[in-house]
Amino acid sequence: MRVLVVDDSTLFRKVVRDVLATIPGVEVVGVATNGKLALEKIEQLQPDLLTLDIEMPELDGLGVLRHLKDQPSAPGAIMLSALTEKGAKLTNEALALGAFDFILKPNGKTIADNTKQLYTDLLPRVSAFRTSRRVSAQQPTPVATHENNFPANAGQPKVCLIGISTGGPAALAKLLPSISADYPLPIIIVQHMPAVFTRKLAESLNEHCKLNVHEIEDGMTIDAGNVYIAPGGKQTQVVAGFPHATLKVTDDPPENHCKPSVDYLFRHAAQVYRGKMLAIIMTGMGNDGTESCRQLRSLGATVVAQDEASSVVYGMPRSIVESGLASAVCPLDGIANKMNELTRGQLLCR
């Protein structure tokens, strides 16, 4: 896989290039110091993937993505972002423009520390990108839709839970604005992201949605008409209460290397709602959410998985499908309709 490193920092160009050179099957075909040069080198070198700094002179990373957005053979991009308010805002914009994923620029005390962190963060994303490109060049693997695979003890759901990771911000930007203002369930989302980034994501989504979108704060009540996004770097619980359940933010350790974790939220939600839940697992790396969905299914909850063709990375939903936990498998543009059908009882009369 051919990679072009784009960064205005001499140090980061070297560190990223050195890290990529250690990944089997990856060839660093060049570097660029700003977005304008990057576009020239993309045309000359035809890379498959960019590592792309956001803030650069002459043309920034967002400008590069805008130029590439409508090109069918454009390379993918993994953004390198700073853990700041501005960095979070710009990164969410980059993801909305089609960037594959992002990593945080490390700020360790030594080059060795930064190199190790970059390798840890880049390796799974480069591997996931390679897999996604290979899959997109083929026909998606056929999967059974399991349209009648509903739990025998399914009940009318009282909450909708969504677990999502790589490709999530862009997917949520399509899904949530299509949900009507009278959708009767509160929606609670775990999107794998660091602190600050989830707040900026919630603010961006709230501008385009009929429902109210919030980053979760400790003690929030769970009410219909609202979408709650778990805060990055924390874990979120659902706590029983009267007349409404509430949300509790904790500093419990990661699960599945994730904080926030889908399994963590779903498992705690099951203690309150039992089987009266609709769970949706969408695009993302890994298998976070599979074990908790197994528990949810045993309680009578309904589980929906995003399909392979519309997933940026078919990891989390694939795990749900291959484990036999999916009641339905839907393309991204069909999930809102499926939510309505399941929530309003049209498919519960099996």
CA-atom Rg in angstroms: 20 Å
Round the mean pLDDT to the nearest integer and report it. Answer: 90
Helix vs. strand class: alpha/beta
DSSP summary, beta strand count: 14
Largest sheet: 7 strands, parallel
Number of helices: 11
SSE arrangement, N to C? EHEHEHEHEHEHEHEEEEHEHEHEH
C-alpha termini separation: 47 Å
**CATH superfamily descriptor of the largest domain:** Methylesterase CheB, C-terminal domain
CATH topology of the largest domain: Rossmann fold
Unreliable residue runs = 346-350
Provide the fold topology.
Layout: E1 2-6, H1 10-21, E2 27-32, H2 35-45, E3 49-53, H3 61-68, E4 76-81, H4 85-96, E5 101-104, H5 111-136, E6 159-164, H6 168-175, E7 187-191, H7 197-206, E8 212-215, E9 226-229, E10 235-239, E11 246-250, H8 262-273, E12 277-281, H9 290-299, E13 302-306, H10 316-322, E14 328-330, H11 335-343
Parallel strand pairs: 1-2, 1-3, 3-4, 4-5, 6-7, 6-12, 7-9, 8-9, 12-13, 13-14
Antiparallel strand pairs: 10-11
At a glance:
The chain is an alpha/beta fold and 350 residues long. The chain has helices at residues 10-21, 35-45, 61-68, 85-96, 111-136, 168-175, 197-206, 262-273, 290-299, 316-322, 335-343, and strands at residues 2-6, 27-32, 49-53, 76-81, 101-104, 159-164, 187-191, 212-215, 226-229, 235-239, 246-250, 277-281, 302-306, 328-330. It folds into 2 domains: 2-136, Response regulator (Rossmann fold), CATH 3.40.50.2300; 159-343, Methylesterase CheB, C-terminal domain (Rossmann fold, 3-Layer(aba) Sandwich).
